[in-house]
Design goal:
This protein has 647 residues and is α+β, with helices and mostly antiparallel strands. It is built from 23 helices and 18 strands. Helix content is 51%, strand content 19%. A hairpin with a 2-residue loop joins strand 13 and strand 14.
Length: 647
């Protein structure tokens, strides 16, 4: 097979060069359009069920809501695990399915089961399917300052709920936008029992009047002179005065208005969470992405939308601030790996030239790197993989091996061309190059197959480990297989054009190789005389290393330095929101005193749309850091020391 491939490539040299150039261009364009993320897709198909249960205690939520819904989910095809959390007035159920199952089919199955269980739930309790979101879902935190000295927190929350949130939800890829903080406006009616009793009005009449308020009704059609008119009773209103003047009943021909028997006003709804920014009240918006969305591209779209909204902010509003961007960490991580990849390629080029001491042979060998890498990018695109630390890590591991096949082939071709030039009857250059390339093919193929077999076990890893490490194996295997193909197609063609026209064929060893061989010979002669000692030392070293493995620290992933910290302030359960907010504000102010801290955002409790059933005693602070002479551990120690003064 390789004989046919090599001869065909040498016969159709321009086609091989054209295909290689086209692959480089197309691969570069595809690479720029590929999604970028920290990790590969780790999203196991999961459906979230959220149920608001008024003011029920966690025990009642578990017995009356969670248990019936959770039981109805059992037995569905493909379900691997069901988890639930029951909090105050909230039930959250996570239904996990097999890897690779269709998430939309799973949601359809759950929707059908919910229709069967709704009758067993208390009145007014309606479970809802959560939006499709990613395990790396929270990509942005946006702070809208709501300082009461400048603007009403109620106005800021309305702007977040009715302007910012709908605008961000129109962006493709955004799964959910969850606001927390500020004050949610609601109508509050505080009944005056003494007035009701004095006027002889039953509470039922008051409730009936309130139910009918704010609704439009139809009166059918009126037909006259061949035309028809739709009759409507316009009752919908958002004016507090209309509610105050609502007629509750009529006594002795006199209308009794609602404001006569109750205090009617706007008031903030009962809160289960609070937000702040830099120690002052704020509305914090959490932007979550869909599983297949590109985090970096989606972040840029959100930034563009917020910039447009910032041009027409209402009077008294401060400019929104980005508290957390996952895209910054992604770009920083990917750039680090790309720099390692670039530096590795440069080192390969330098080492190649030092050993080969020939510009043309070095150039031919190095061509295997861009062609192989860009061919791998096309495979990524075909299989729907993203550019992430694992795929780039696989390429970084393989970067040194991509030129192995080409180096071996080029060196043998150069040697054969020199011998052919001094022969009595020289053969055609194409035949010499083909024969020289075939001479070393078997060893190269065996070495490549052995390396591929070493990475095969990665593809049988179960669960999230397999999803995490399989792309690394794919990147490594595809790149070295591509380099092997390049060595039997592009490398012989470039050797045909560049090597025969050299003024002299330098087939001897470079000074560096000569020096290394001389020292290697001395070392070999010495080692043969101390064979037993060397073998015993090697065995002892293997035993020591194997025994020390059990003492290594273990972690699924290494620690990441993304320039941010998450600080959790956990108080005793039962602590009120006001007390928790007070202590968390103090903690926020203490953290802001650290020199490296640039901004702090805080979320206490849970938001109305949030699927995290945290109590009001729980606070999460997102801290942004700037670079300094102190390392991460020293900064964390400083923060711990400052927070130690909290009660």
């Amino acid at each position: 097979m390789f004989d046919y491939i090599i001869h065909a490539a040498l016969k159709q040299r321009m086609i091989v060069l054209g295909i290689s150039l086209l692959m480089i261009i197309y691969g570069a364009i595809t690479l720029r359009q590929m999604p970028v993320d920290v990790f590969p897709d780790l999203n196991k198909p999961t459906v979230t069920l959220m149920t608001e249960a008024g003011g029920m205690a966690p025990e009642e939520v578990e017995q009356l809501v969670t248990f019936p819904v959770e039981s109805s989910m059992n037995g569905m095809p493909g379900v691997t695990r069901i988890r639930s959390v029951s909090g105050i007035g909230l039930s959250i159920i996570y239904v996990e399915f097999d890897w690779g199952s269709d998430i939309y089919r799973n949601r359809q199955q759950i929707a059908e089961r919910l229709n069967l269980v709704r009758e067993a739930l208390p009145p007014g309790i309606v479970p809802q399917l959560g939006p499709l979101s990613s395990i790396m879902g929270e990509i942005l935190l946006i702070a809208l300052p709501a300082d009461p000295d400048k603007i009403s927190p109620m106005v800021v929350r309305e702007y977040a709920d009715w302007v910012v949130r709908p605008r961000l939800l129109t962006i493709p890829g955004v799964a959910q936008v969850i606001p927390i903080g500020g004050e949610v406006r609601q109508y509050r009616i505080e009944i005056k029992p003494a007035q009701l009793q004095a006027l002889g009005i039953e509470r039922e009449k008051l409730e009936t009047a309130l139910k009918d308020f704010g609704a439009n009704t139809s009166g059918g059609f009126l037909e006259a002179q061949g035309r028809e008119w739709l009759i409507r009773q316009i009752g919908r209103s958002s004016r507090i005065e209309d509610l105050q003047n609502l007629v509750v009943t009529v006594k002795n021909g006199q209308s009794i208005l609602l404001k006569q028997v109750a205090d009617v006003k706007f008031a903030p709804a009962i809160k289960r969470g609070e937000g702040s920014y830099k120690g002052k009240p704020a509305v914090i918006l959490s932007v979550q992405k869909q599983p297949a969305a590109d985090s970096v591209k989606l972040t840029r779209e959100v930034e563009k939308a917020m910039a447009e909204l910032g041009k027409s902010l209402p009077k008294g509003f401060d400019a929104p601030s980005f508290l957390f961007k996952q895209a910054d960490f992604i770009e920083h991580s990917v750039n680090n790996v790309e720099e390692a990849l670039r530096d590795g390629a440069i080192l390969v080029a330098v080492i190649l030239f030092m050993f080969l001491l020939n510009v043309r042979t070095t150039l031919i060998s190095l061509m295997a790197i861009p062609v192989s890498l860009l061919a791998t990018a096309l495979v990524f695109h075909y299989f729907g993989l993203s550019i992430n630390t694992m795929t780039l890590g696989g390429l970084a591991i393989a970067i040194g091996e991509l030129v192995d096949d080409a180096v071996v082939g080029v060196e043998n071709v150069l040697r054969r061309l020199k011998l052919n030039r001094t022969a009595d009857s020289p053969l055609p250059v194409a035949e010499v190059i083909a024969a020289a390339t075939l001479e070393v093919r078997s060893a190269i193929v065996y070495a490549t197959v052995i390396i591929v077999l070493v990475f095969v076990p990665l593809f049988v890893l179960p669960g999230i480990e397999g999803r995490l490490f399989s792309p690394l194996g794919i990147a490594y295997i595809v790149s070295i297989l591509a380099s092997m193909i390049v060595s039997v197609t592009l490398t012989p063609v470039m050797a045909y054009y560049l090597l025969p026209r050299m003024k002299q064929h330098h087939a001897g060893d470079s000074p560096l190789v000569i020096w290394l061989k001389r020292w290697d010979a001395k070392l070999l002669h010495w080692s043969f005389g101390h064979a037993r000692s060397l073998l015993a030392g090697a065995v002892a070293l293997v035993i020591i290393v194997a025994a020390s493995v059990s003492f290594f620290p273990r972690s699924f992933l290494p620690p990441f330095n993304e320039g941010t910290l998450t600080v959790n302030v956990l108080l005793n359960p039962g602590t009120s929101l006001a007390e928790s907010n007070s202590i968390a504000t103090l903690a926020e102010q203490l953290v802001m005193q650290v020199p490296e801290v640039t901004q702090v955002g805080r979320r206490t409790g849970r938001a109305e749309l949030d699927e995290h059933a945290e109590g009001v005693h729980y606070t999460e602070m997102d801290v942004d850091l700037k670079a300094s002479e102190r390392n991460r551990e020293q900064i964390i120690a400083d923060i711990r020391q400052r927070l130690a003064s909290l009660p």
